[in-house]
Amino acid sequence: MSSFAWYSAIGCVLVALGLVVMLLAADRFRRLVALNVAASGTLVVLLAVAGRSVEPDPVPHALALTGIVITVAFTGLGVVLARRIDELDDRDDGRDDNDELDDRERADHPPGDGGRDA
User: Fold this and answer.
1) Taking Cα atoms as reference points, which of 2, 4, 1 lies closest to residue 49?
2) How many distinct helices (H) and strands (E) make up the chain?
3) Could you read off the pLDDT of 10-58 as tens digits, one per residue?
4) Which of 4, 11, 53, 110 has its CA 20 to 30 A from that of 96?
């Protein structure tokens, strides 16, 4: 097998693996990692296509480099959005870190002692 066929096969396996995990995973961060695996697979296929001739074509290499930069930027954005969604889900469940502090403060100051700071 030629190197083009190997890299194309590896890239296709990465894309398929990433898409399957992305569709089946329930956790947002696993989905984000799976999306990155699929994106890496597409970049491997793109580089395989770029290197199939004797003279390498610089355009696919430039596209792959641009794809890497965009993937890093969207991964950062995805992590921030996933954390924010998780925080909002925790608040919708009725409990968050501030509620636990309020419960401890209420235990320290019973209702009949004239208030919290009295």
Assistant:
1) 4
2) 4, 0
3) 999 999 999 999 999 999 999 999 999 999 999 999 988 888 878 878 8
4) 110
Closest CA to 52 of 13, 15, 3, 1: 3
Which residue in 62, 74, 7, 9 sits closest to 36, CA to CA? Answer: 74
The whole-angstrom separation of Cα 103 and Cα 46 is 56
Which residue, 41, 36, 33, is CA-closest to 14?
A: 41
The two tokens of residue 60 are 């696919």
Q: Around 112, how many Cα atoms within 13 Å sit in the side-chain half-sphere?
A: 0
